[in-house]
Amino acid sequence: MRQGFPRITRWLAPGVVLLLTACAGEHPQTVLRPITDYGRIQSDLWATVTWWTVGIMLVVFGALTYILVRYRARPGDPPPKPIYGSTRLEIAWTIGPALIILFIAIPTIRAIFETQAEDPEGALVIQAIGHQWWWEFRYPELGVTTANQFYMPEGRPVSLHLSSADVIHSFWVPRLGGKKDVNPVVRTPEGVRPLHLNRIVLQADSTGDYKGQCAEYCGTAHAIMYMLARVVDEAEFQRWIEDIRTPMEPAGDLAAQGREIFQRSTCIACHTIEGTSARGQLGPNLTLFGDRFSIAAGLMANNEENLTEWILHAPELKKGALMPGARVGGGGMPPTGLSREDARAIAAYLSDLRRPLLGARPAGSAAAPPSTAPDTMVGTTDTTGIAADTASAAADTARQQPQL
Amino acid sequence: MATTSAHATAAAEPHHEPSFVRKYIFSTDHKVIGIQFLFMSLFFLLIGGLLAGVIRWQLGWPTNPDMPLPGGGLLPETMVNQGIVLPEFYNSAVTMHGTIMIFFAIMPLLVGVYANYLIPLQIGAPDMAFPKLNMASFWTAAPAGVIMLAGFFVAGGHSGAGWTQYPPLSANPEFSGVYMGQQLWLISMIVLGFSSLMGAVNYVTTVINMRAPGMTWFRLPLATWALFVTAVLILLAVPVLTGALILLLFDQTIGTTFFSPEYGGEPLLWQHLFWFFGHPEVYILILPAMGFVSEIIAAGSRKPIFGYHAMVLAIIAIAFLGWGVWGHHMFQSGMNPTLGMGFMATTMVIAVPSAIKVFNWLATMWRGDLHFHTPMLHAVAFVGMFVIGGLSGVFVASTPVDIFLHDTYFVVAHIHYVLFGGSLFALYAAITFWYPKMFGRMMNPLLGKLHFWLTVLFFNLTFFPMHNLGIAGMMRRIYDPNQYEFLRPMQELNTMISIAALLLIGTQLIFAFNFFWSLFRGEPAPANPWRANSLEWAAPSPPPHGNFARTPVVYRGPYEYSSPLSVEDYLPQDDPPAEGPEPVPAPATSH
Predict the structure, then answer these.
(1) Alpha-carbon gap, residue B275 to B239, rounded angstroms
(2) Which of A204, A348, B430, B471 has an alpha carbon within 20 to 30 A of B422's alpha carbon?
């Protein structure tokens, strides 16, 4: 037994180094391969801290192991010499750690100010709004709103403005480097107080899809609050902005029927689809829904079968979700009473709301100038159609859902 | 001193046997109250451990119908449905594991048990300064525990807002889906706060006023020093929490908005108040552990503690600096970078007194005669685990590194290295060390060592890989990590951790068996089984009501091991010097 104790401690120290280094390569979310300036500041500092702490750990565990082996009681040992202390040693191991801390603190302080700089000139503002349990993204300068998946131009500074509609969330896309609490907007009789609305300023220099999620525990479905950051080049970013502003027409019959049903159901009380009469603000904006990577903030893959199930059974599939299902209400709303056929048609419609393939873009899609206000920019085509839709949808809603 | 002598005389007189109720239930004897706290907090340690088992089962085999939760059938369908832990119950389990372990297991074990049991014995007093207040303290803590447990049985389930209870999630039932459980949580914590305060007033008063003749401040054992400083921390920190809890209860019940943002309330105010209490609380949970370990390492090494004065000053320094670091829990809440820098600096500075303590423990063992009995093994493990926990603390203290690590499993690993690897190992050391004094019997050394080795092994297998999970990007408090396909590669590691954790929980049964078996079958303990010096070992095992037949007189410090003045390798504090006239010690109150 007395031999065994040091053996364990001897393994432990090199094990630490091994474990700390081994986890760098295999996992997509690691901080050790950042793609932003913001992330690189962190990972450089990370390396500094790691070397110091691993060094200290080797020294302390080495000393501990030596002491435990060398000075364990053996029969016939003379009694140890009583030593009460040494002022010189106490001073040494006060100053030693203090110096090491200084070596860690100086680069830390530099990094703190670098990671919390002001918005640079020409930064693209993206408002990230946390909801229980999904993400809303608004581009106030561009008049675009989307949910759970957002686009970011490569090589341009981006300022993420974080706020919450309900509880505290935390925005975290690990490879982008940032993590910040998403605090609720404080409302006073005098108006909104933006005191604790946080920002993350970063610039991505590598295109790709980067996954993220809510990091601050925020209630029942905290585990299903996924988001996707798409870093694309500037031209692709501009194309996406054009596409999301262009109203999409459903292609097939089923989808057209789905649009009909969507318009006259309670869906439109909470969801917005640009270019239609659906202007609800409580739920995720469904414009270009067909392009989303998932349903319900990462719950399921985005395909028509899953979407049908989701429309029918949202509260059962995602505990705590505020969307009502066909038979179970949710978020204070009654059940929708939609049939499976209805749900399938709506699923076909929403899946159809996708970006056209490159090169086959609808004519006139570049019509909306960036300066146009959000309410009018989508109305450049088919205004009368939309107006007619709105009227009939309102009538249908009134007839079918007297509760609302 | 008047109190002391009065009690001493009373103890010396033969007095009639009190009734069972007065002796074991509504007792004013500090030792009985300490033992009552011991049984209560060991019970809560079991509950907290079972909740940890639920958490690890779900994370090891997430939502897997082939691996139904054992015993899940006993729980209602609103918690576990067909063997699958539901998200609401998982969130409650996470909340209650933290709450119960911190407030109902570790804190009462460290303070309720040992401040009560040890302080009068170590300072040579017959009892606490206010024995009835002491009894009231236990009988306030016990109902708080009942209220806390009641939360599991109300409609809507127990609080699911995390042990930190951040509003608006905790303030508004619409956000958490929990109504009554949330209020019971708050009421229980408010009641428990009063219990802690009554205890702390007692400990502080007792140490200041009731030290035996000759027991100067710098002859106090380090355990008493640590408990004294801890009591001061409790006195200053707990009222802040209690005040905040009352405001939060108002938010929940009568519609105020101190912390709800709808009408100008400030959610961040709660975080400041909570952590202004919460960080001193961290030191409440580690300082007594450091004190116990100092006693045990000195006795196990047969050497005086190295740098006694430095050790005392380090305790005071940690307690003092602990007031200026609460903001490091809020680095990602959004604060001015200058303020963040200040909190980072104070946090790092606190590493210095901690390092001093570690080096002094190493120096105490250096050239010692190390006897690896069960308490010593746990004490040495404390040092090692505390070092790991301290060093992982440097990562999260460095604000920009914390941007990544905040709210990940790295933090979970860190807190468990400090709270389990630190506090709980020190508690196992303390329980096994003072058990003979408390119950008059020795614990079985073989079972003790078996429990120690398996605990060290499974502890490290459980919590060390959590650092990796955090670095690889796994968040805390998620019901099902497989929701995120990028966390799926780590599922094997999660399953391994869960197996180790379940074995770790199972290993504690060895301890429970040893504890109860030794109560009845353990070898009768001598008064001083570890050949230690402090005054509690001068009293019989277990000490009678009133502790000492005569008020002991103290001649020296508590760590005179291997002193050349003694034939034995120890020299108790109350042994009169062999030759020369007896020095008349000054009364303790004059210091």
Answers:
(1) 13
(2) B471
